[in-house]
Amino acid sequence: MASRRVLQVGGVTIAAGTAYYLYSAGGNPSVAEKQLEHDVSAAGARLKGQDLSAKEAQKKGEVWAKEAGATLDRTVDNVRGDVREADKIVTSKMNEAGSKVDQLKDQGSKQLKDISNQTSKELQQTADNFDKKVTQKTSEAKSGISSWLGFGK
Question: What percent of the chain has pLDDT over 90?
Fold first, then answer.
């Protein structure tokens, strides 16, 4: 009697399971069979301690790592390009500054030379004026002494 009861419960369970999978598959027996196989393998994996979501997470993690690596590579390439551009700008500005320093040096040398020439001219003129005055005063002094002694006018 107990074995008959077990057979009845087992038969009803199988019929209910079959009806569930056929209904969820929309009446398509091959789709229902694939869903049943998937559910059986998932249940088996849980019993063995394997979690299918961990495998899926690992796959998603690998995809994410590849995407992150590609993004990082693009970012590094962009930064390298920016550094090259900045290097060109800095080099250009340094060349401009070098030209400006050379130009200012040349201007400074020219101004120094002009000031030196002007000072030399002024010094020469002052010396000439001093010589003229000394000559004139010497001449006046000679004529004054000569006139005292009766030699002059």
Answer: 38
